Amino acid sequence: MTTTAPRTIPLVDLSQFEKGDKAQRQAFVEQLGSAFHNIGFVGVTGHGIPKDLIDDFYNAAKEFFALPVEVKRKYEVPGAAGQRGYTSFGKEHAKQSQVADLKEFFQIGQELADRNDSAFQANPEVTEVPQFMTLGSQLYRSFEASGSSLLRAIALYLGLDEKYFDQNINDGMSILRAIHYPPITEEPKSAIRAEQHEDINLITLLVGASAGGLQLQTASGEWQEIIPENDEIVINVGDMLQRLTNNYLKSTTHRVVNPPRSEWDKPRLSIPFFLHPRPETKLDVLPSTVTADRPQAYPPITAGEYLNERLREIGLKK
């Protein structure tokens, strides 16, 4: 007899919001908002992201990361602060740590013909694995659509117009990241695959990783493992949304721990989508979230300024 581990995060069905009646939509809004307020994480089914597309991109990413290091380094983009192309092993660390995470990654960003600033520079084409960028672009658009629906539900939960976020995330700075955690070959120097951190963006959409290890920290300080099931994607609040809502929605600390020593030889591949607004978007605290019990916690700042500040903290920008 097989037993399944108890769920650590709620599960919601996005199709209820996108295709349901008024009562179903309202129920989804309450479920999603409650999860973001109380836990900061939620599992989502009915998201419409094709499984074949996810699987094909995973396979293409495996091919890319299997290339020799000197080939992968051709795709490092100078001056992009890791926001485009390849970032080699040992470059990024959590903001409170000086020990680099045990990972390498490739980032695909928004490309806009009418914007030529560094936030929107072109993605490199990977000639050795041509389908990698083609599939990545398709997956980017699919994540963007699902993320937009989720933010519409959150806008309603916050008492805002349903399309409040639309103009800010349209042509925003969102990033699709393929992360490769190689096999562990020696005793790590206090590093784990990804040290505890909070995400920078509005929300993160994560398709199931090829191996376990993702954990969130509860309000009492305990670590709980998140194990996605079937076609579920995991969504979490980022610091921008926490800031905008004056800490009402929680950007929860999480990490990726190393596997048991017996599984050190197994690599891990993970595909998160970091949904960012346009750089000029104001992250000023929403007046409706300021109360006597929750005074304004943050000064005004734009999304672009905040992103640059955080990229410096994690070692990707000088």
What secondary-structure arrangement, pairings included, does this model have?
Layout: E1 11-13, H1 14-19, H2 22-38, E2 41-45, H3 51-65, H4 69-72, E3 85-87, E4 104-109, H5 130-157, H6 166-169, E5 175-181, E6 194-197, E7 203-207, E8 214-217, E9 223-225, E10 233-237, H7 239-244, E11 254-256, E12 268-275, H8 303-313
Parallel strand pairs: 1-2
Antiparallel strand pairs: 2-10, 3-4, 4-5, 5-12, 6-11, 7-10, 7-12, 8-9, 8-11
> Compute the gyration radius: what is it?
19 Å
SSE ordering: EHHEHHEEHHEEEEEEHEEH
Spatial arrangement of strands, main beta sheet = 1-2-10-7-12-5-4-3
What is the architecture at the second tier of CATH? Sandwich
In terms of quaternary structure, the protein is single chain
Bin the strand percentage: 15-25%
**Percent helix range:** 25-40%
Instruction: State mean pLDDT (0 to 100 scale).
Output: 88
Shape: globular
Please, what is the CATH homologous superfamily?
A: B-lactam Antibiotic, Isopenicillin N Synthase, Chain
Helical/strand content category: alpha+beta
Distance between the ends: 54 Å
Number of helices: 8
Family: Belongs to the iron/ascorbate-dependent oxidoreductase family.
Domain Fe2OG dioxygenase: 171-277
Keywords: Dioxygenase, Ethylene biosynthesis, Iron, Metal-binding, Oxidoreductase
Protein name: 2-oxoglutarate-dependent ethylene/succinate-forming enzyme
